């Protein structure tokens, strides 16, 4: 189970890295974000890549929950607990996020581009839910990587111990979360959501 979870996790990590890079492009504007997404979609928005990715996510959700139930009472130390609980949050997030994306595509006939993702972030008061919802997802992603790094890394790098390396990964996750939110909210000033996406925010 752990081996399967690890392999599916690597697959998803590659996709998430590109996904977060795409979101980071929002710092240059919404149109630039959409243009880059259109290029990335040539790679992952096809029946073969999308099916493979969906299988990996489903495996990750199932195996992640199984490992959480098995390990939650036997974990000791900060990073072991971080790995277990961040993994659980990611499993739940994947489940709801994929459900939302496919509902938007199949039932609402919406392009699930940046506007689909940020409608909640840029609308008060529902952003009081979506800010921690997305924030914890990004932090959990880096927290999970940080915990795995701590468990597997044995050597110092430039005099930095594995524990400090793992802490730096966590810090990077926090900084990146703030940077992404800055871009996805137009410098925290808000982004106007097109009318076709108002159904997502109750307008």
Structure description:
The chain is built from seven helices and no strands. The protein has helices at residues 2-24, 30-44, 47-71, 78-106, 114-118, 127-152, 162-184. Helix 1 runs antiparallel to helix 2 and helix 6 packs antiparallel against helix 7. The longest helix has 29 residues, at 78-106. The N and C termini lie far apart (45 Å).
Residues in helices, as a percent range: over 70%
In N-to-C order, the SSE pattern is: HHHHHHH
Q: Overall 3D geometry?
A: globular
Number of strands: 0
Q: Rg, please?
A: 18 Å
- Distinct helical segment count: 7
Proportion of β residues? under 5%
End-to-end CA span: 45 Å
Question: Mean pLDDT, rounded to whole units?
Answer: 93
Content-based structural category: mainly alpha
Low-pLDDT stretches are none
Question: So what's the oligomer here?
Answer: single chain
The main β sheet shows up as: none
Please describe the structure with a list of short key phrases separated by commas or semicolons:
mainly alpha; 7 helices; 203 residues; 72% helix
Entry summary:
The protein has 7 helices and no strands. The protein has 203 residues and is mostly helical. The chain is globular and about 50 Å long.
Secondary-structure blueprint of this entry?
Blueprint: H1 2-24, H2 30-44, H3 47-71, H4 78-106, H5 114-118, H6 127-152, H7 162-184
Helix pairs in contact: 1-2, 1-3, 3-4, 4-6, 6-7
């Amino acid at each position: 189970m752990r081996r399967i979870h690890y392999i599916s996790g690597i697959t998803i990590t590659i996709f998430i890295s590109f996904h977060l890079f795409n979101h980071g492009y929002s710092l240059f504007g919404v149109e630039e974000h959409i243009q880059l997404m259109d290029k990335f979609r040539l790679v992952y928005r096809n029946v073969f890549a999308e099916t493979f990715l969906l299988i990996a996510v489903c495996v990750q959700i199932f195996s992640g929950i199984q490992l959480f139930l098995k390990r939650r009472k036997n974990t000791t130390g900060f990073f072991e607990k971080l790995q277990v609980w961040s993994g659980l949050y990611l499993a739940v997030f994947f489940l709801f996020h994929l459900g939302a994306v496919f509902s938007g595509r199949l039932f609402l006939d919406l392009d699930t581009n940046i506007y689909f993702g940020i409608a909640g972030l840029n609308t008060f008061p529902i952003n009081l839910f979506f800010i921690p919802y997305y924030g914890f997802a990004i932090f959990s992603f880096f927290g999970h990587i940080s915990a795995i790094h701590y468990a597997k890394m044995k050597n110092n790098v430039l005099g930095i111990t594995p524990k400090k390396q793992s802490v730096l990964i966590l810090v990077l996750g926090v900084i990146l979360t703030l940077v992404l939110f800055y871009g996805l909210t137009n410098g925290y000033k808000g982004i106007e959501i097109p009318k076709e996406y108002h159904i997502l925010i109750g307008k």
